[in-house]
Amino acid sequence: MSVHAKTAEKMTGDSMMKTQGSKLEFNLKKIREEFPALHQKVHGKPLVYLDNAASTQKPRAVIEKLHHYYTWDNANIHRGVHTLSQRATDEYEAAREKVRAFIHAQKTSEVIFTRGTTESINLVAQTYGRQNIKAGDEIIISHMEHHSNIVPWQMLVEQIGAQLKVVPVTDAGELDLEAYQNMLSEKTKLVAMVHVSNSLGTINPMKKIIDVAHQAGVPVLVDGAQSVNHLEINVQELDADFFVFSGHKLFAPTGIGVLYGKESLLENMPPYQGGGDMIRQVSFEKTTYNDLPYKFEAGTPHIAGAIGLGAAIDYVQELGMSQLASYEKEVLDYATKALSALPGLKVIGQAKEKTSVLSFVLQDIHPHDIGTILDNEGVAVRAGHHCTMPLMQRFGVPATVRASFAFYNSFEEVDALLEAIKKVQEVFKG
Description:
The structure is a single chain. The protein folds into two domains: 3-51 and 320-429, Aspartate Aminotransferase, domain 1 (Alpha-Beta Complex), CATH 3.90.1150.10; 62-317, Type I PLP-dependent aspartate aminotransferase-like (Major domain) (Aspartate Aminotransferase, domain 2, 3-Layer(aba) Sandwich). Helix content is 41%, strand content 17%. It has helices at 3-11, 28-33, 60-73, 83-103, 117-132, 151-160, 177-183, 206-215, 235-238, 263-268, 303-319, 321-340, 367-376, 389-394, 411-429, and strands at residues 17-18, 25-26, 41-42, 45-46, 48-49, 111-114, 138-142, 163-167, 188-194, 220-223, 242-246, 257-261, 279-282, 287-289, 345-348, 357-362, 379-380, 382-384, 400-404. It is globular and about 75 Å long. The model is unreliable at 1-23 (pLDDT under 50).
């Protein structure tokens, strides 16, 4: 057993232990007990879940909250005067307030519930974008964007005759900020940029990106899908015009997400969909629209999802986001050092500022083969292009293996990943 595995064993003890080389106190065993899915076997091996960038596991607090809603409070919201409807409405709107406080928005009216990051971006593209971007204008994105922050803008520029400009990425996996600044011009009408790369783990200097854009009078949409569960977010300090994220990467249910937008922008944007709560008055001659945030929440929303998101926010805030981030950094640093020492393994993405994502390739072995063998060892990773095909092309690889970490992962699980990779090498060497 490695030194770090022994350290991990100590960390999982009943008492609060300090992680190796840090002042951080962290009761890993207690935390892991809160996530039922982690305590199972896959192919006869204990599950090592390292696919958190795709979706995180759910704590009991979230699962029990969903169970309570569907058992006792299941009713539609806003429309009913009966008790169940009122209870469901209270919980739904309480979740909105929790989101507001979590990302430090100024008002709950700036928090729109959506199905996820993808829908949030599409909403902005087809409302704000269609209204404010015209033929000949430019939208700036980066080479490290997820497809969800590429395709909606491609669709928009095709519809209106605008142009998409792409900020290049360095060999280390960092944005070329000088190129970004040079791209901004009078033609630039929007910047849409990822906060943390889902394929590289790079933390982009979002405050600087926004400040530079605002100096040119350009609004910024921040894709926070991979940052909201690792970094403390303050949309007012960032001065983000739009900030989007998904619940399922924040230990909440699937199918729920958030669009934050500055009230002044949201007020002037047309509705995205029609029907349900987004109306104030309907006649065959004319419809008047509801106030924020309901103007953008047509139809019956994902009530349970929003309530579950509120529970997830309560859970991580009780643990402390800064403490979770510090621990995750220690796990990532250990994993990076351990895997980089393996012969034939190349880490893709070595930015100075990273979080919780370790992508790699093995010489002469396809990532899908690696992922399959790792799964047989009980290790769950993601193998593929991670919805960042242009980024894969930039680094000259068809795909990578991505191990992504959350605060419930241990050093011992990193050791299990390491041993599973060695087995892959033995199989192909044989």
